[in-house]
Design goal:
The chain is α/β, with parallel strands linked by helices. It has three domains: 205 residues, FAD/NAD(P)-binding domain, CATH 3.50.50.60; 109 residues, FAD/NAD(P)-binding domain; 108 residues, 2-Layer Sandwich (Enolase-like, domain 1), CATH 3.30.390.30. The chain has 14 helices and 24 strands. The radius of gyration is 26 Å and the shape is globular. GO terms for molecular function: flavin adenine dinucleotide binding; NAD(P)H dehydrogenase (quinone) activity.
Length: 475
């Protein structure tokens, strides 16, 4: 039986569109099945817009308190904000439209379907079955609602259903992910009373202690109540008020927001019927992004506590190459930068300090530079934060973590250096414009030079002798 396609992509997400555009570059016959599964691509855009507006709100109040004599509590008009947000989304959608993919040769199928195993593997639509050499799942993600006594009866909301203008004042956020931290800070800056509850003792289990301590201190300084090691046992409503039993504490709140771990949308796809194994709401894959059925690949899996579109598109690029060519390409998340939408923003690439010490023992130089050394940080009153660079003793960069203004832009330079094996000595030869955030990389590279081990004592001794005699000769 002949095949209809080289690759069938299932999903209505940014990573699905990106995968289709990448696959067509190999002159492959590609189908994109949109289905009726919810597109979650706007969630990250909403978070970005929300983060930007709360950032501007803070600076507006600084100007009001320090420099301007005006009587205005807030300039945020939520009706205008929603209108502007929709316009931004409309413009973004125009750049990712299906018409451009169709013009490239991708078959766009606006139907839903499911996998079938017999007589051969295929994807069954209403009136036909798609046969392909390989398949790629690029569906979106949904929140995993914890099983808590009384939660369903009392009610809750998830981030994609937030109506900021209608939110009550007292909010409890249940989260084990970075999104809960982002949301807590953003809502707090809009005047909400926030309690953020974690089951464990660490708000970011995969990050270094100094990163965690600073982020936690920022949240608590801004008035967010953090409850650690407080598993929630039950939720009740008493006289119109919601009560949460978390550990030994009973918390009264107006609304509950669930921003817990997320899982990939797989409902209605019959994955179990084609021998795709799912454990703990997660599709089992190898480092080539193959499922337990080697003809089916996955991208957009939730990585640790981060769910970022750049990681999903990186996975899509690896999965497409493996599906179209041959499965030899492996994912390496150390090469992809990540960021968390806090203020100041946290960004990370490569190994953490903990991982580097485990893998490289004493063959390390770790340099840290505070943001208060930057002219731009002082001008913007954003001196909280630091940049931590992790290298081997020969200058090879292993990782970087930054908390501070525009860290999401600076981290890209370090990611590029790691990917191309550019040593820190090269960064010290760059002289960024005065008053820019990237000055911190120059400063940290200069600081690294003072900590590196002596490379050649003979040359240093010769240079010292030469300078000594030159001073003598000039007398």
């Amino acid at each position: 039986m002949s095949l209809d396609y080289d690759l069938v992509i299932i999903g209505n997400t940014n990573q699905a569109f990106f995968a289709a555009s990448e696959a067509i570059k190999f002159n492959a016959r590609v189908a994109l099945v949109l289905g009726n599964i919810h597109d979650d691509s706007w969630q990250e855009i909403d978070s970005l817009i929300f983060n930007y507006l709360t950032y501007i709100e803070r600076h507006w109040h600084n100007l009001k308190n320090w420099y301007l004599n005006i009587n205005l509590d807030s300039w945020l008009d939520f009706n205008q904000l929603q209108k502007w947000s929709n316009e931004v989304k409309k413009d973004i959608k125009a750049t990712n439209n299906l018409e451009s993919l169709a013009n490239l040769g991708v078959d766009i199928i606006e139907e839903s379907g499911e996998f079938c195993r017999l007589p051969k593997l295929g994807f069954v639509l209403k009136n036909r079955t798609l046969r392909s050499r390989r398949y790629l799942l690029a569906t979106g993600a949904i929140y995993n609602i914890p099983q808590i006594q009384g939660l369903t009866e009392v009610g809750y909301i998830t981030p994609e259903r937030l109506d900021i203008d209608q939110l009550p004042n007292r909010l409890v956020i249940l989260s084990q992910t970075s999104l809960g931290i982002e949301l807590a800070q953003q809502l707090n800056r809009l005047g909400k009373e926030i309690t953020l509850i974690f089951d464990n003792s660490n708000i970011l289990p995969l990050e270094d202690p100094d990163i965690i301590q600073l982020i936690q201190a920022i949240l608590e300084t801004e008035g967010i109540k953090l409850l650690m090691n407080c598993p929630i046992t039950q939720v009740r409503e008493i006289e119109g008020t919601k009560w949460i039993q978390a550990g030994n504490e009973a918390i009264e709140t107006d609304e509950i927001i669930i921003a817990d771990k997320i899982k990939q949308q797989t409902q209605g796809l019959n994955l179990e019927g084609v021998r795709v194994k799912i454990e703990a709401d997660k599709i089992q894959i190898n480092n080539k992004l193959q499922t337990t059925n080697p003809s089916i690949y996955v991208c957009g899996q939730t990585i640790s506590s981060y769910n970022l579109s750049n990681l999903a598109c990186y996975e899509a690029s690896i999965a497409v190459k493996n599906a179209i060519l041959y499965p030899i390409f492996k994912v390496n998340y150390n090469l992809s930068p990540m960021r968390m939408l806090t203020n100041p923003m946290f960004s990370q690439v490569g190994l953490t300090e903990t991982q580097a010490k485990r893998d490289y023992k004493k063959d390390l130089i770790i340099v840290r530079q505070n943001y208060k050394s930057l002219v731009k940080a002082k001008m913007l009153d954003e001196t909280t934060g630091f940049c931590k660079l992790i290298t081997r003793r020969n200058g090879i960069i292993l990782g970087c973590g930054i908390i501070g203004n525009q860290s999401e832009e600076t981290i890209n330079l370090i990611a590029l250096a790691i990917q191309n094996k550019v040593k820190i000595q090269k960064i010290s030869q760059l002289f960024p414009p005065y008053g820019t955030t990237s000055e911190i990389l120059f400063q940290i590279s200069q600081k690294w030079q003072t900590q590196k081990p002596p490379k050649n004592t003979f040359i240093n001794n010769c240079l010292e002798t030469l300078l000594f005699w030159r001073r003598k000769w000039n007398k």
